[in-house]
Amino acid sequence: MIVRTLVADDEPLARRRLARLLEREPGAELVASCGSGPEAVEAVQRLTPDLLFLDVQMPGLDGFGVLEALGDDAPPAVIFVTAFDAYAIQAFEASALDYLLKPFDADRLHRAFQRAETRLRHKDTEGTPAQLTQLIEGLNRQRSSAERLAIRADGRVYFVRVPEIDWIETASNYVRLHVGKAEHLMRESLANLEARLDPARFLRIHRTTIVNVERLRELQPWFSGEFVAILQDGTRLKVSRGYRDRVAKWLGG
After folding, report:
1. Alpha carbons within 13 A on the beta-carbon side of 228
2. What global pTM score does this model have?
3. What CATH fold (topology level) applies to the domain 3-140?
4. Looking at domain 148-251, which of 3.30.70.100, 2.60.120.260, 2.120.10.30, 2.40.50.1020 is its CATH number?
């Protein structure tokens, strides 16, 4: 069986070493070697590999961000390459096909590849997407707030820097990100997105609205105990009574 394999690691030496080790595996066909998260997303969607060796710690878009961006397009077998501590490794063991703890040797790579090859040969990938989703959700709660969000549209994936977002609103089963004059739809609930944002930067002011506090120009009293938040560009957003306490706490009141 030939296993079409893709490697994603931002460290050139580590990437080349992993590629050389894979050359020793008779069943491995290296289809791409990527040096960044966005590059890996594009390559996976274009080449549809069977197996992905994915570095966890990459700047800009880390391994978990790559899987989030790929969604259902993620390969059937994913092996993490990580320098995480033992607690995180236990999570990988429970939820992913395998992991390689840096630095690893040729024997360890061989065992990981054989495990992937066996699973692929027997089509034993049922439940893998759900396991990866569980892993992502669990570790999202542990890692720092998101700095970039992956947007899927028209068969492409592109990325929005979180600090550049002015405000966010619900839009049916999506959220709409307002970034300057641009708008982006993201299939996510407002509550889930709020949990991923830095609470020191983003404030929920309504059940349908989150605002970047750095874009706030003023708050004006409105009817029935409500307020209107006015952004630097003149956008007016309602602050509902139900979220008044959050706003008061942010103001230090």
Report:
1. 8
2. 0.54
3. Rossmann fold (3.40.50)
4. 2.40.50.1020
